[in-house]
Amino acid sequence: MRQSELFGKTLREDPKDEVAINARLLLRGGFVYKTMAGAYDYLPLGLRVLENINRVIREEMNAIGGQELLLTAIQPKERWMRSNRWDTLAEIMYQFKDHSGRDVGLAATHEEAIAEIATQTILSYKDLPLAVYQIQAKYRDEPRAKSGLIRGREFLMKDLYSFHRTEEDLDRFYTQADQAYRKIFTRLGLEFFVTEASGGTFTKQFTHEYQVLSEAGEDHTIHCPQCRYAQNQEITTMRIGTKCPQCGKGTIAAAKSIEIGNIFKLGTKFSQAFGLRYADERGEPQFVVMGSYGIGPGRLMGTLVELSHDERGIIWPEAAAPFRVHLVEVKSALPKVRMEAEKLYKTLLAKGVAVLYDDRDERAAGEKFADADLIGIPWRVVVSERSLAKKGFEVKRRTEAQGTVMGADRFLKLLKGK
Amino acid sequence: MRQSELFGKTLREDPKDEVAINARLLLRGGFVYKTMAGAYDYLPLGLRVLENINRVIREEMNAIGGQELLLTAIQPKERWMRSNRWDTLAEIMYQFKDHSGRDVGLAATHEEAIAEIATQTILSYKDLPLAVYQIQAKYRDEPRAKSGLIRGREFLMKDLYSFHRTEEDLDRFYTQADQAYRKIFTRLGLEFFVTEASGGTFTKQFTHEYQVLSEAGEDHTIHCPQCRYAQNQEITTMRIGTKCPQCGKGTIAAAKSIEIGNIFKLGTKFSQAFGLRYADERGEPQFVVMGSYGIGPGRLMGTLVELSHDERGIIWPEAAAPFRVHLVEVKSALPKVRMEAEKLYKTLLAKGVAVLYDDRDERAAGEKFADADLIGIPWRVVVSERSLAKKGFEVKRRTEAQGTVMGADRFLKLLKGK
Fold first, then answer.
1. Is A79 in the B-facing interface, judged by CB distances under 8 Å?
2. I need a surface site. Which of A47, A71, A105, B17 has the fewest CB within 10 A?
3. What one-character-per-residue DSSP string does A358-383 give?
4. Looking at the structure, do residues A295 and A411 belong to the same domain, yes or no?
5. CA-CA distance, A383 to A341, in Å (whole number)?
6. Tell me: the pLDDT tens digits for B351-403?
7. Is A196 left (phi over 0), alpha (psi -120 to 50) or beta?
8. Are both A146 and A250 inside the same structural domain?
9. How many alpha carbons lie under 13 Å from residue A136 in its C-beta half-sphere?
10. Cis preceding linkage at A129, omega within 30
């Protein structure tokens, strides 16, 4: 894509009303726009990152048999009364009357919806197990929404729901889902802790959270840095500064952390509320056992920025980056510079490399380099009089201080990991 | 995909509270679930159709330079006050207070949002023209929502917005967008009329609507069946039963029709409301000229069903069908039937053919055929004792009464159009 045609501009100055680093950098980089606290629009650059994250999530959800669907946000009060959550979630749920006077709400989560729908789909033990998921907007009227993309009032959620005959079969799938979650976070380059946590309003059983250490977090993970054993602060039995009870070597530490995912065993809570039963081999009705598995793709995007940036801007991991290569043409009176930049742009496109081409006429070199650092694409390639005098292009990773001049062939090999 | 594992079951009986054919067939086929009037959930089969429609739309929007983004549904009242539409849209807009007492609304359209965002992105004439689009959920509190997927309270919309220096440049792009819309509808197999219509709350200029004739429609298109000239009933100067003023041959008719798309010239209405200006070559500020272009992918899905079905079920066009082939295995005591069905399933998958494989044990042949007709996948392939005795599989298009027995090679050639 030509940067001269991109919808979305970098901003020189920090936005005034943002404290979170992720929001400041994403706003300045032209990735998002803030419609109100906790509600961000994804501009083309930001949507590319989001879709990359979504692709990783979809691949791993499909790999464990997840079937994608898309549920509505707007829902009638009656549905939420069946699980008793119209009242228990009232503090964070947007609830209002439509023009006919009917009570409706915006879903903060979809256990109710999916349990109701499943009563039409799950009849016999032969229909189980099943797993379905969606990537869809959720709504929570958060009193504090100061963490940028990490805590939203309108935010995207990948929520997967699984259905089983028995607790044992739920356990089997829960382990698979845990492995899938670890793959997702690993593919995105995140170092995470898996913590036991309380199930909150959902279940009396313990659940698991995936946490990454970050000053921007709102959680605290009590953990052993050595063996990576961790517990949520609310349920921990470990004391800070003592030896780790698991490995006996590390010293227990507390750190602020961001929850990047969670998995719950719901048991039969929602099956009972909605009469979700299957007929077993003897034809006897049994309640379906359910699980619930959440990841916020927008929150992941914010988390990646919190964990991977420097004073100049974002440093995207390859898996999430909006483009793989940022091709920067330094303005010159010599037509050869433009010509070589255009040629390299076309070569990269022909090779299927996602490239943002800074072809803007009016910008000085320093300004273009500052924009490239802010946007944070993994590879920067500069075409300039200087680089051409050295018979090539200056290639620099976002993480490197110094670039190296090389020809197109060598750069393409580098991109292929050779 | 194996039908035994599909989330979503066909229903034998018509849902009680649906009058629209599209809703009845889509509900019975397991494509959608009804959460409330005007709010439908897309089950895996339905989401596959929707994504096929979205793919066609995206390809044509990208081809005219559209950049995809994703805007929020929830928005503050203040934004809508600037265009004066908080009040003029109040009848159909969900408007409510959040827990802090702030007035917010769910966007029924996004001219306000995009004009506000564009003030950050469009500064100079060099930034123009631009076109951005999204495929995103819109909310309208429709008093009557009885048309299934054709009129929703929560519904998906592809909305594209374009930005220009002059009316002339808008005209140029408007023609391109018109061509792109014609391509989209043609690729989906829809015969449409393009009608002039009044711009409603948007503009005093005429706009264009794309209409398909259907008893399920809520519009009336005054048209000439011969030359396909058409006008919206609200602005028409043509009288039913008279000679067509365009071709002089056809006789003007009125018919019920469904609006499947519309394109608007917005002029500077929203640019003025939001102070969206660009600096021209002399540095003088000028208001940006805007256009707006809408298609509802869910409505398109409902329209396809209205226009293409028979008494047994849906007849999907290839471009929208959830799968290309419905492979039906007729239960048999001979292991060879299962073996050959499995083998054909794997062959089709290996060739990249999207196939739904009815491997359900408990269903009788008649029931499976009825399901296949209801779901409406273009090609049905039956593997049975009878077909194997004739050395092949019974291949039948959804539109054909009789099938033909043939081997896998001949079927694959047929699929390739040979």
1. yes
2. B17
3. E--SS--HHHHHHHHHHHT-SEEEEE
4. no
5. 6
6. 999 999 999 988 899 999 999 999 999 999 999 999 999 999 999 999 999 99
7. beta
8. yes
9. 23
10. yes
Are B178 and B249 contained in the same domain?
A: yes
Query: How many angstroms separate the CA atoms of A148 and B129, rounded?
Result: 31
> What is the rounded distance in angstroms from the CA atom of residue A142 to the CA atom of residue B78?
20
ipTM value, please give it: 0.96
Distance from CA of A379 to the nearest CA of B (A): 23
Q: How far is B48 from chain A (nearest CA, A)?
A: 9
Task: Identify the helix (H) or strand (E) that includes residue B397.
Answer: strand B393-397
The answer to whether residues B132 and B278 belong to one domain is yes
Distance CA(A166)–CA(B64), nearest Å, equals 53
Q: b vs e for A114-143, b when ≥16 Cβ sit within 10 Å of the residue's Cβ? A: bbbbbeebbeebebbbbbbbbbbbbbbbbe
Residues A338 and A209 in one domain: no
Verify that B211 and B336 share a domain, yes or no: no
Return the beta strands (E) in B24-144 as ranges: 32-36, 39-42, 67-68, 74-76, 95-97, 103-106, 130-139
User: Pick from A9, A40, A361: which is nearest to B121 by CB?
Assistant: A9
The pLDDT-based confidence of A363 (bands split at 50, 70, 90) is confident
Q: How many helices (H) and strands (E) does chain B have?
A: 12, 23
Size of interface A-B (CB pairs under 8 A): 145
- The verdict on a CB contact (< 8 Å) between A69 and B7 is yes
**Residue B134 structural domain:** 3-310
CA A258/CA A212 separation, integer angstroms: 5
* Segment A143-166, tens digit of pLDDT: 888 899 999 999 999 999 999 999
Taking the CA of residue A105 and the nearest CA in chain B, the distance in Å comes to 11
Q: Which of B30, B65, B94 sits opposite A98 (nearest CB)?
A: B94
The H or E element that residue A82 is part of is: helix A77-82
Cβ A71 vs Cβ A108: under 8 Å: no
| B185 occurs within a structural domain | yes
